[in-house]
Amino acid sequence: MWRQPKAVWAVAFASVVAFMGIGLVDPILKPIADSLDATPSQVSLLFTSYMAVMGVAMLITGVVSSRIGPKRTLLLGLVVIIAGAGLAGMSDTVMGIVGWRALWGLGNALFIATALATIVGSARGSVAQAIILYEAALGLGIAVGPLVGGVLGSISWRGPFFGVSALMAVALVVTAVLLPETPRPQRATTLADPFRALRHRGLLGVAITALLYNFGFFTLLAFTPFPLNMSAHQIGLIFFGWGLALAFTSVVAAPRLQARFGTVPVLLVNLLCMSAVLAVMALGTDNKAVLASCVVIAGLFIGINNTLITETVMKAAPVERGVASAAYGFVRFGGAAFAPWLAGFLGERVSVHLPFWVGAAAVLAAAGVLGLTSRHLTGIDVEEDELDEITEQATAVTVGNDS
């Protein structure tokens, strides 16, 4: 699995930096609020604008990539991220940062969806091994992001934004040099393709499961720093532990559990455990030790979920993988976008405990949706040669219908 072409490693490195952006701002949420006299719900819009634009932009990633090619799409995404992160660091108002984070989300959408399809298409070995490599990049980026954010944020809340911009410039050069020109797909993707893909009940069910799961995930990510009420460096260390736990289970534990028990059973148990962790956080919100411990423990379940959900999406419907990724990303980031703002609002106006209760309920509902969807996912654990043949046949039928 680890013997891959240079092009795959180039995209993986850039993915690490891209995913750093998710957790990088976590340690500086409170410093931004203090420096710019903003409320938690206002600061949480940094996540909302980022995720909302990313979700909608997922619909155009396939359209852009199929017309200008995957490499140019990746480079375009990196350029947009560099601009968005740098301009956010130069802003003097919360709403200014929120706006530039939205631009950052557009760049991330162009990059992330194309990166996943590029790694899966270019890597040696099976789809599952390629996805593990992608999730390893995701886990490393999410782990390092809060640590870098905490270190730079202890100097200035602007530091993490400029840090991402500089690292993305390095990723841009590495990708431009090491990734060869990738051929365009035989058929140009349209805006309607992701919606057509969602007609497959298996893919739709997994996407809704991911939406609800991400609601709980980003409640934890965006709201926990406020009741923790610690320095940027301390919060960075806590979320670094969370990221390490996530990286370990996504690469090591997830494939082993999947091989022994099957994808859907592991996901169901995992979602129930994640819901229980959020419930404990709701009960122990006033105890910083409980919150910090639960953040790290949650990383174990998030890592398993990320790997298996991503792999399931790639196998849930007989459609092109880029189209499946776009459709899934569009739906799931809806939960990621709304949760941070709602958590901040409920924490301010109602109770500091309520956001975690809502997150726990959402993840529990995700388990219910997955259970109802499971009868449409019977083929996700079949041999990949057989699955690829089914996908190729479906793609050929689609091309024939379009012509």
Automatic annotation (TrEMBL):
Record InterPro entries:
MFS, MFS_dom, MFS_trans_sf, Tet-R_TetA/multi-R_MdtG-like, YfmO-like
Q: Which locations, inside or outside the cell, does it occupy? A: Cell membrane
Gene3D superfamilies documented for this protein = MFS general substrate transporter like domains
Sequence intervals crossing the membrane: 7-25, 45-66, 73-90, 102-120, 132-155, 161-181, 202-223, 235-254, 261-283, 289-310, 322-342, 354-372
Top-rank lineage group of the source organism: Bacteria
Start and end residues of each Major facilitator superfamily (MFS) profile domain: 7-378
Name by which UniProt lists this protein? MFS transporter
Protein source organism: Candidatus Mycolicibacterium alkanivorans
Give the matching Pfam families: MFS_1 (PF07690)
Query: Is the keyword Repeat assigned to this protein?
Result: no
Q: What is its main location?
A: membrane
What the entry lists under PROSITE patterns is as follows: MFS (PS50850)
| The keyword Magnesium is assigned to this record | no
| Keywords for the protein's UniProt record, in alphabetical order | Membrane, Transmembrane, Transmembrane helix
Record SUPFAM superfamilies: MFS general substrate transporter
Q: How does it sit in the membrane?
A: Multi-pass membrane protein
